[in-house]
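Posting this for the archive.
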Amino acid sequence: MSKAGPLETSANPSSLTILRGSSATSTLTVTSLNGFAGTVSMFAMASPPGLSMSLNPANVTLQSGGTANSIFSVFTTNGTGLGTYQVTVTGFSPGLSRSVTLAVTVTSPPPPPDFTLTVSPTNQTTGRGSTATYTITVKGTNGFNGTVTLSATVSPVNRHGPILSLPSTVGPYSTSTLTVATGHNTPQGLYTFTVKATSGSLVHTFTITLNVTA
């Protein structure tokens, strides 16, 4: 192996951003300068530790004035710490070494699309034979753009009401009305309504009450 001259190392890209649980690669290029020829062994070290890394190939052979590439791969798991790691990759050949530094930033995956459900007011009082209304608000989050199915139940159940009315489906950013009608025969007391909003596997509920008086 020749020790005639130095070598140069570079990385492209030199900065990587990875979602936790995934991987990324960078191409390392080793260049012969001043007539250097020989085998260069590549090693990677991260600070702070916590990354799984590989170099393929781990040893490259240079001809005088030539270049050789090695693929740097970094792997993360769901338990990898978030933040930026400084990775130093060093190429060794007897009597000399050259290093290049990469910045590897591990981030959290974005939260999945979802929506929120609110109903207001949360409680009301009305007399028998009257109607009460509640405002249902559905608001998409994290890019949610689906259709939401609405339903509502009442407890306790009574054959004389209250009777609930609301739209069956709404959009991802919508305001609608829940109407509660009581009859003259509706028993007095406190009624609990559970509003349920469903879109695929997403389910949200909201509980409100109505106190029916004479």
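The chain has a mean pLDDT of 93. The two ends are 101 Å apart (CA to CA).
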